[in-house]
Amino acid sequence: MIADEQDRTVARLRHELGAMDVHAHVDQVDRMLRRVHTRRREQRQHTVQIVAALAVVLIAVAGAFVVSWRQAEPDLATPAAPVVEWPMRGNLVGDMALHERAEALWRGAGENGPTGPVRTIYAGKRVDRSASMVVIAMVAPMDGGRSRVAFVTSAVSIHGVADETKLFLRAVTTAEPGQRAIGFIAAKPASGDEELRGGGAVGFTLATPGATAIKFRSSTYDMEFEEEQPIEPDGVVWLVGQTGMAAWNSTVQVAALAPIAVRLAPALTDPDVESVTLTTVGQTTKAIGDVRPGDLIVTAEGLVGVAGADGTVDTGLTGLSSIGTVQIARSSIPGNLVERAGVLTFEATGPGELHPGNRVVLANGDLVINLGRLGQDRLAVERLVDPNTVTTAMRVRQR
Amino acid sequence: MREDLDFDGFVRERYDQLLRYAVMLTGRRWDAEEVLQEALVRCLKRWRKVPADNAVAYARKAIYHEFLRSAKRKPLVTLDEIAGQLDLEDFAGAVVAREHVLAVLQILPPRQRAAVVARFWLDLTEAQTAVELGCSVGTVKSLTSRGLAKVRETWKAGAVEHATVVTSPGRRWA
Asked: What is the DSSP string of A262-314?
């Protein structure tokens, strides 16, 4: 290259590179930071799981010499004991004053409180850099082998301080007969909770005695998330997940002959979630259970429909604007779902670039529920839940 | 905890600068954000060991290595392909898409592109560029020379053809 031509090229390069400007809005930086912290948390968890898995393999190999004559894995074959019969576990089981305070709190919780005897099945403290908390899990027997379950906790701390002197009722739920795990997810901080670094949800799962691992699954807004997590010796798996993880989009499974997804309770500060049964006759889908008009009927994968009179579920996705904002999950590009020549289509009403595979969600404050996914043409929307195939679901109601 | 706070503060302060570097390497903001995210995760992993006075260079290196990793998965594109993906409204004094500096950079192989950006945007010396890219000074000279030659040829050809590519008005970078 001739020297002056090279000089001109260099000068033009310097000029044009210097003139190029790229700016990010502060929200975009915040979103990036949240994603970075979430990815890092996931990497840490993954590392812990690998170490735990190696330990399990070593123990299993060693144990095989001792128990090689045994034909079946007891955990897989043994039906789960009723929740009310689970042993008391946790590193605070000896603190009777703590149990009494927790029980008094639950009993004073009005319609969320128990009737009859109450038993503590877990009392423990987790101290960790990401989230520290005290949890007391209590059960009260109900009719039909079911149990009322309450989780009294301290506030969440990100500074390693779980103050067991300041407790409150975090969540209540009902455990079905044979249920192999109980737990809750707090999708957003309650009053007094410190927000996780980079945002996110906290949760707690207590598994049936003898179980060794749970499979936690969430369809939260920007990723399919499914991973097996080892259960700690006291029966617990603490959950620290990304923003958006919530009771209405997450389940756990404990290894069993027929794994059944267990619903986690929402925190009392999150929208209310209860199980419902769906029946479809002809073109009509009905939700059976504690259902009111306006309730959202969902599975952990996404929206089934909106409950109307008599539990009838409107399974159409084109009239949701009165309930929340239809938008792309990650980029928050707003839009509408419309039928175009019989095809469910996303019409953007705001700026932004759509990509095949983008998830379309219904957002109402912290409540974000999957609707579908953009196809290759970036317009047609593939629905994530087929209402005709769902028989058990959840109803979600803003409190 | 402190290091997390420091890390967040660093990212907030330097985000535009790091993103711009990633855009120059990848050519598209969408790809740049992906590369930047993975690079920042790597930085966060070793944040305690990152010297405070050299954090930007450390982050740039992480971006460069992440860019090389991502580039292995993507074929080189033609000038017309990359030009069609640009939105010129974002850049002051933009020329036609095929001659835009981002489009021209995209036809260079990844290491040549990084060398050109390091020398003529970051204004690093050949020795500093060698440290930045983890190669010898001789390699930097060779990469820069070949990169410059390709850029010059492309611009020269563009000036002859007066080619104009109209980009999609719907595409936005921000």
From this structure: EEPEEPTTSPEEEEEEEEEETTEEEEESS--TT-EEEETTEEEEEE-GGGEEE
